[in-house]
Amino acid sequence: MKLQKLEDFILSIPQKLLYPFKKLSEVDYKKLFSKESFKGFFHNQSITKRWLLNMFSVIALIITVVCVSLVFIITRFYRSSVEQQLRSGMNILTTEISRLSYDQTANHNSEIRTLVETYEDKDIIELMAIDRNGNVAVTSSGFEFNDSSLFEEQYTNDGVINIVELSTGEKAMSLTTSIDESSSQFVALRMVTSLEAVNGRVFLLSLIVIIISLSLLAFIFTLGFYFVRTIKKPIDKIATMARQYATGDFSKRLEPEREDELGKLCESVNFMAAELSNSETMKNEFISQVSHELRTPLTAIKGWSETLTTIDDRETFIKGMRVISSESERLSQMVEELLDFSRIQDGKLMLNMDNLDILAELGETVLIYQERAKALGITLNYYEPEMLPIVYGDKNRLRQVFINIVDNAIKYSDSGDMVNVEAYEEKGQVVISVSDTGIGIDANDLPKVKTKFFKADSTRRGSGIGLAVADEIITLHGGTLDIDSQKGVGTTVIIKLPCKESKKPSNDKSVNVEVISTVEERNDFTNGEQNTGEV
């Protein structure tokens, strides 16, 4: 019964292994085992090849060891069953002979001979009686046994097991047990049974185990190859798309096939492509804008220089020289801004740090834009406290930041708007606030305003790198530059710098408010004069 259950279980394993493949269609098989799938399999250091050489080889070794162990166990199991059967039968016989030994009237030789000749299992087991000379005297089949020399002549009560090959060429197992009969001519009983049926069964089951092992290896190889291929295929697509992005073509995107790590990688690559595309677009717009910004002052300088060579009017000459000087300064500032941006990109922006009065630099910046704000009809208010702590920094770079912030506030404001500049101390930091009531910044553009080349309004002058440079300068000073804005309401820029020394303000908590410019009608200036003082 146990043997039958073991065989049924072993025979059912191949069907269980092959069940997942029943769901694959013919098209799936063709794709899985196509020539393209195996192309270059052993000709490059692919993931598939490394998996085959590393992981699969270990699995194959383990399965081989298990297979050999199972074959050995099956062989031992069946032979132990045969041995157990022989010993059980021998125990019955020796018990019967021991019972006869107590009967003094019985003919022991005749009884043993009758017991051997009438043995009921003689169809599968040959029972023999061994005489005192070691010869087979009686057999259950009645035929003479000529292979006695193959068996050991040592007899024990526990029995001696031998596995031999008979003269007929078949394997056989024997059990020889001594009998304690001093009055009998027989000294031992021997049972011999053929192992051909057992070996055939063992061979069949071993073959099934080997087939199952090979099927399991094929299943693991197919499943592993399919799994590795599902990884390799998206990676190949990503590599192809990356090479396309490297050429500057960002028109295509990857389509994630699954929501796993590879899907997230595809999304990251798509995000990278979108950012690179945006950067490329902003770079092209920046080049176009810078070209325009450079061409405007150069055109004014060239036009006025040609005009001045042909006129004798003193007033016109002075006006022309003023425009040339102003546009030259504007051009110089643009070039310096570009150089700063290049230094920041290379990590070579140097600061000349020293103790400085932040109010002096801020007040000078407001003074620079006083006339310009007045000319544009913009109210420029400066709220200056009596005293602020000393700041350790580069005054030229900080002035550059203030100029950029105030210039932007005026640039993105219209006639009738207001720009407020304020400085104060808060929690050990000097805070500079520049707010305006201008056009404001859209909520979608606000996170990008400090990004290089970005301009929220391309109709306004500027290169689009001023805020990026300003933010980097403030960061190098250990401070922060934050922007809050609302479309159509205005923008507020908050700059915070660490104080080197805390100074208490005067007992008078009132703050002096100075109106630098008031709202006036815009004067009719020439185009060149309107651009004077741009940063």
Please explain how this structure is put together:
With 535 residues, the chain is an alpha+beta fold. Helices cover 51% and strands 16% of the residues. Strands 11-12-10-9-7-13 form a six-stranded mixed sheet. The protein has a five-stranded antiparallel sheet with strand order 2-1-5-4-3. The chain has a two-stranded antiparallel ribbon with strand order 6-8. A hairpin with a 4-residue loop joins β1 and β2. α7 (261-308) packs antiparallel against α8 (314-346), α9 runs parallel beside α11 (395-411) and α11 (395-411) runs antiparallel to α12. It starts with a helix and ends in a 5-residue tail after the last helix. Mean pLDDT is 76; it is low at 13-33, 37-43 and 502-535.
Q: What order do the helices and strands come in, and which of them pair?
A:
Elements: H1 2-18, H2 26-32, H3 35-38, H4 47-100, H5 108-117, E1 125-131, E2 136-139, E3 160-165, E4 171-178, E5 186-194, H6 196-246, H7 261-308, H8 314-346, E6 354-356, H9 358-368, H10 370-375, E7 379-384, E8 391-393, H11 395-411, E9 418-426, E10 429-436, H12 466-476, E11 480-486, E12 490-498, E13 512-515, H13 527-530
Parallel strand pairs: 7-9
Antiparallel strand pairs: 1-2, 1-5, 3-4, 4-5, 6-8, 7-13, 9-10, 10-12, 11-12
Helix pairs in contact: 1-6, 4-6, 6-7, 7-8, 8-12, 9-11, 11-12
